[in-house]
Amino acid sequence: MVDSKPLLQDRPPAYNAVPGAYEYGPQQHGYGAIPPPAPPPYQYPDGQGYPPAPMGPAVSQQPYAGTYTILQPSVVVVGGCPACRVGVLEDDFTCLGILCAIFFFPLGILFCFALRQRRCPNCGATFG
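Now predict its structure.
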């Protein structure tokens, strides 16, 4: 039986052995090496033709004292207690307001709402 595998001499050449392979652009020799130092900065010529700038007396600044003041923004909660700044004010009807609402029925309800008191459940402060 004859073997159909190609022999070593019959195989195609390697890719890097083909002339003209990998010629995509200019070759970078020393790729990855340390680049040469940068050229020195441009030296400007002296300002010939310009008069020198007038210099005033030097003023020394006093060093600033090392104290800092941190200003925190005040957050105002609508309906919040101005005394403790934690609780939320609740509306309470006064005894006089409830009695006006009962005895002077149609007009007494307006007096009831006008005589409300606001009370903080956290600190117990009342505001009229």
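DSSP finds two helices and three strands in the chain.
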